[in-house]
Amino acid sequence: MVEAGYDPKESIKSFETLKQGREEAKVKEPYFFGTHPRLEERIENHLRLLKGEHQSAAEEPGRRQNAEEYLTRIHQLLLDNAMLDLKLGRLKIAQAAIEKHLRRDPNSARGHFTLGELERRSGDPGKAEKSYRLAASLDPNYAEPYRELGLLYRAQNKPGETRAEFEKYLQLNPKAIDVGIIRGHITELSKP
After folding, report:
1. Are 113 and 76 in contact, with CB atoms under 8 Å apart?
2. What whole-number distance in Å separates Cα of residue 181 and Cα of residue 192?
């Protein structure tokens, strides 16, 4: 990173972000660091590098810092991690990432969809429905909210709403991996 022109002092912020996330989640040590030097040791080692091998680069003016670029690049990663945390049942950690994403971009269709996933898995289908609806209104070409709305309505035995949402999903994503399953649900709705 130093050779690429980045300010080596900026990278310490990544460790601080990890530390803050760990503290917010009340985790003693993130799994990733389980077989690596502990987070505190990494921070200490990094500070040692800044005072030694990379001191001249750290003091050199004009190095790239671009925090905005960094935030833009990790923005979508927050939702990717939130989805993984949801799958692992770490709802509070997922919620923190989703909220951070939505603070930066309150009109993120994917952010509201992911919030809907959290709400559904938390047992609140009413809130999930609202979040999926908002995601679909923010990006009418985003297919996944329609599938999830169809599944919610199917579970609530609302055949008309189920069909409409599933048909919209298939219209937007005709090559989806679950096309056969969704068509099967639609066919099921046609039976007397």
Report:
1. no
2. 19
Share of the chain residues as helix, strand and coil, in percent rounded to the nearest 5: 70, 0, 30
Q: 140: phi > 0 → left, psi -120 to 50 → alpha, else beta; which?
A: alpha
The residues, ordered by sequence, that sit 6+ positions from 169 with a Cβ below 8 Å of its Cβ are 143, 144, 146, 147, 150, 176, 182
- How far apart (Å, rounded) are the C-alpha atoms in residues 57 and 118? 43
pLDDT at 76: 83
- Please name the residue that has the structure tokens 């046609």: 190
Give helix then strand counts, H and E, for the chain.
10, 0
Tell me the two tokens of residue 163. 């069909």
Helix-helix angle 12-24:91-104, to 10 degrees: 130
Give the predicted TM-score (pTM) of the model.
Answer: 0.72
* Those residues with Cβ within 8 angstroms of residue 170's Cβ, 6 or more apart along the chain or in another chain: 176, 179, 182, 183, 186
What's at 65, amino acid-wise?
Q
pLDDT in tens, 149-172: 999 999 999 999 999 999 999 999
Q: CA-based angle 51:4:78, to the nearest 5?
A: 90
CA 139 to chain CA centroid, nearest Å = 17
CB distance 162 to 154 below 8 Å: yes
Q: What angle is formed at CA 73 by the lines to CA 68 and CA 79, rounded to 5 degrees? A: 120
